[in-house]
Design goal:
This protein has one domain (3-74): Non-ribosomal Peptide Synthetase Peptidyl Carrier Protein, Chain A (Orthogonal Bundle). Helix content is 54%, strand content 0%. It has helices at residues 3-15, 36-50, 56-61, 65-74. It is globular, with a radius of gyration of 11 Å.
Length: 81
């Protein structure tokens, strides 16, 4: 499984969304699933999937699908392959 697939799966599991959602357009608060509780669940999914630690400052900057990828890239996750 590629890191992009793992990332999308973390969103699906963490926010309980199905595959038909356009994940690239997701932003915090945009859906009822991505509220404060969903955000923390998603963070936990990402930490488990990629074996990283996301601190509180990083959690607040993670506000969209894209910013999450940028954050994980800074933490050493490679999405190029």
């Amino acid at each position: 499984m590629t890191n992009i697939e793992k990332y999308k799966l973390a969103f699906m599991n963490g926010l309980e969304l199905d595959e038909s959602v356009v994940y690239e357009n997701l932003e915090l608060g945009m859906t009822k699933e991505w509220d404060s509780i969903g955000h923390m669940t998603l963070i936990a999914e990402l930490e488990d999937a990629f074996d990283v630690y996301i601190d509180s400052d990083e959690m607040t900057e993670f506000t969209s699908y894209q910013t999450g990828m940028e954050l994980l890239t800074r933490l050493g996750v490679d999405f190029r392959s």
